[in-house]
Design goal:
Layout lengths: L7 E6 L5 H16 L3 E5 L22 H17 L2 E7 L5 H12 L4 E6 L8 E2 L1 H6 L2 E2 L26 E2 L1
Parallel strand pairs: 1-2, 1-3, 3-4, 4-6, 5-7
């Protein structure tokens, strides 16, 4: 690292549907907290909006328009205020929300660090072209997760996607 001033404001994105996806978040937050270039980490699920009018939202079904608008706006605010994004990307269950957030950050000319995970490290590594070319850096979640503690978020050096079949 050339400069360890904590200036980076991270948007930590991830799908949050499975136990494995949820379990990665505290570890990522811990690693980012150790990083001397990180000033702040915004994790959207820490800012969850609760619509007091909704009944049993955890059961599923259609969420209220109030909840949808507030949640979307909170996430856009987090993305807009971030200097870069870190995405714990589930290669086993691709998430449209994460893909949108990655695209939004790149449209704002902000770097994106992709941390892909898979429960089956022996399966073929395949990634969509728009994700592979859209991210600034890839840090393999299964073998390099610890690099989040030392990555230079001030200069966000590129490490392009390599070793994946691109579709």
């Amino acid at each position: 690292m050339t400069n360890s001033v904590p200036t980076a404001k991270i948007y930590l994105g991830t799908p949050f549907y499975t136990d494995a996806e949820r379990a990665r978040v505290p570890k990522a937050q811990e690693l980012l907290a150790k990083n001397p270039t990180v000033a702040n980490v915004f994790f959207p699920f820490d800012q969850s909006f609760v619509d007091p009018e909704e009944e049993n939202p955890e059961i599923g079904g259609i969420r209220s328009m109030t909840w949808r608008q507030a949640t979307y706006q909170n996430d856009l605010n987090g993305l807009s205020n971030a200097t870069c994004g870190v995405f714990l990307y589930d290669m086993d269950q691709i998430d449209d929300g994460s893909a949108f957030e990655i695209g939004f950050l790149r449209a704002c000319h902000k770097p994106v660090i992709l941390v892909p995970f898979t429960e089956d490290p022996n399966k073929d590594k395949v990634m969509n072209l728009m994700i592979a070319q859209g991210v600034t850096t890839i840090i393999d979640g299964n073998t390099e997760f610890e690099k989040l503690a030392t990555y230079d978020f001030n200069s966000t050096p590129a490490n392009p996607v390599m070793g994946y079949k691109i579709i």
